[in-house]
Amino acid sequence: MEDTTMLDASQALFQDLTFTIVPTSLSEERIRTLTDDITTNGGAVLPFDSSVGRIDRLEEVTYIISATSDFPDYHRALDLMIHVVKPAWVDGCLKTNKIKNPRAYSPDPALFMSDVVVCCGDIPPGDQDAIAGGVFATGGQFTATLSKLTTHLIALNMDDERCQLAVNKRLRCQIVLPHWFDDCLKVGRRINERPYTLPDPEILNIEAGPIPATKTSPQIREATNPDPNDAFPPTPPAHLESPRAIRAFDSKKVMLGEDLNLNEHLKGVITGLIKAGGGQITTSIEEAHIYVCNYRDGEDYVKASQANKDVGNLSWLYFLITHDTWTNPMRRMMHYPRPRDGIAGFQDYKISISSYTGEARVYLENLVKACGAEFTKTFKQDNTHLITAHKNSEKCEAAEEWGVDVVNHLWLEESYAKCKKQKMTDPRYTYFPPRTNMGEILGSTEIDRDAVEKMFFSKTRKPKAVKAPAQPGGVPAPSIPMGRMNSDRGAHTSPLAEKTSRRTKTTGDVVTPAPARHFGGKENETPGTAGSRGAKDRANARLHESAPDIAQFEKEMKRKGGVIHGGRRNKVDEGSDKSKRKGGRDSTSSKRSIEEVDGDDATTEDELTEEPGKKNKKARKDKLTPIKYRMLLSKDERWANDPDKESKDKARMRELGLFITDDFRKVDLLCAPKVVRTKKFVAALACAPTLVSSAFLDYALKNNKLPPPEKHPIDDREFSKTHGFRLRDAVERAEQNKHRLLKDWTIFCTEKVSGGFDTYNDIITANGGRCQRWQGRTTNVTASKRKIDTQPQEVSQNQEEDEGDVLYLISEPNKSEFKLWEKFRELAKKHDMIPRIVKTEWLLFVAMAQYVHWDEEWELNEEVVNAMGK
């Protein structure tokens, strides 16, 4: 809960407290109001010196009022334990006449719910407690009562009393499902509320259409390229002089690093712009306030960073010139110097992206390269990773087929920010919120200054002199300081390391190897340790060297057919395969590749995909055949124990336009030797697919062309006799239902049901319903009646026999389930509904027939089970 400090009645609210107001993003009127409120209530306000851009007498300040964390003294204030709060903190204190908890009003970007005030509707108390705890932990506020300050009302439907009150009172709050907050926590960012907004949330609408493209994230504007040498310096704005303006270069000395490689003309233009802004150019790192360079190495970079000077790259410098306002270079990825050799482990990666356009695409392309990986515009089978904004694209389907890792951009950003490759096992990197374009939060990650300091300019390390490359004739050049070389690297290297770089040593040089940096969990290992520690270090080293092979093995295991029989690689010799991983790719090898057909990726001539060359002498340059049919197979055993043949046959079919998938949510053809009641078959019927027999695939494989589906229909005569309806009629109803057969239904299911909970969850979800696991806990779940509309509906099958007030529980005819049944009846009674405990047969019939129907033979009760002797 929120902490507050009680005050003596005779004491002013801000007595003995000292404030400074940072004017960034605040109007003159707002600053005057804050100043009056603070001084009237006993506080003192130290003026902010706009000409300096820093807070004078920072040690004397108790609270800093700022709308953003992007001001020069932010991190120093935190180190001094000074509270930094948003202006709303003052308003909150005055409203309650109490000192509010400053954490709830922090501008820290890591507290992504800091602007959120959450109120819950009629949802279970346990869920409310969980939401409240999560809101407080991420910087937001939770209130038990709905008020004008509420920004988000969390509810299950619009029938909730608080939802009706919010609508009637025209409160400016967003009414969202609890899923929104869950997904925010899963990705660690505040995501768009649009797909979760009641009364018609998109996440419950299977036919909602393609995920909309997003506008360019403001976090990456003018921060997409770390080395904008090709761009002419921008012109500063013709702004009016303002006493609150923070002048970027006023009274500042700027040093331009030699690794910028600026020509004299460009350097002269930049120098003139800095001087016009009140700054100076210096060649002394000791005198400089700002140091601009390309890479995180060199003597000057280390000295500037250790002295807490402002260190940024040319893109950051251009940003300051454009806006004439200081910004932290670590706030945006592409504003801070990049590591010369990228991030360890990325050199073996080949990364493509999907569903990003414009500046977002440019930003990610440059970030991939800055990490040290290879970026490919075309997605090929030998790619190691696909970074995507959502999973609704053909590239994602191909990645699943080829065993390529699919991640969101947070994995790339946080690996770069923390200077360390992040583990793919973290679910935040592989989670994609439904109906959400992750591009909306692109660039919200900041550089981790502690990680950068530890890796590149720790106080315990000093820059070293590096031997220059040999001059022509084999004569080594004299040693020069690192800060004066553009090709030097590794200011983070230990001073105990050899003076000659491994990359620049000449033949005959005798080099003493550098000590290991991180063995045993220590950065600086003392030489001459005991033999046991040395053995452990050598073992760790061998394990580290084997890591790429282990990762490759795990990737191959994901492929259909496993490591040996994947069937998706050309059989080339081991040497050529290694050369390809290092960048020298064999032009004769044939790899499948793919590009977006959705139109969301920028398509250029060099993005055209290549089909497998197979035995052809000339590589085919036409695009991969567009998908004509998406086929789901069920109970077809033609490839049992022969994954190599499976892979080749599926590749052949894909070239004909037939994509064989396991995703039952999007199916055009449903193929089986006969009508079966597997999970995939039953769930896929909701797509209203054309039902074909295995003979369809037999013909296609034999003749290398796709036959008309109607010539190979599935035989459902025996099924129709047994179950009383024809599948062709069910498919027609599915076409009308449009995945909404069970829309607004909540169906409960026990864990021990035959086939498993996930089976029935998938079937119910495919038909637009919601399946909830039933464990007998009535306090953690809720249910509501379905509205029955007497007017003619487009989907008559969904309304004809739906009683509206019946609550279903799918269970097993077993005495061990009796206790769960008793609790379920209590839940139904609590919500004024009729409990109905049913066999799995009920759901299978409804999903396959595609209309709601009831037969008493499906009902379960204690008498029936006792009679069965179970």
UniProtKB/TrEMBL annotation:
- Residue span(s) of domain BRCT: 9-107, 107-198, 346-418
Q: Which domain of life is it from?
A: Eukaryota
Give a single Pfam family match: RTT107_BRCT_5
Which residues does UniProt assign to the signal peptide? Answer: none
Q: Name the GO cellular-component terms.
A: Cul8-RING ubiquitin ligase complex; nucleus
List, as start-end ranges, the regions of compositional bias called Basic and acidic residues: 534-559, 570-595
Set out the biological process GO terms recorded for this chain's protein: DNA double-strand break attachment to nuclear envelope; double-strand break repair
- Region feature Disordered, mapped onto this chain: 462-622
| Biased segments, Basic residues type | 560-569
Q: Which PROSITE patterns match?
A: BRCT
**What is the species of this protein?**
Trematosphaeria pertusa
Q: What is this protein called?
A: BRCT domain-containing protein
Q: Where is the composition biased (Acidic residues)?
A: 596-610
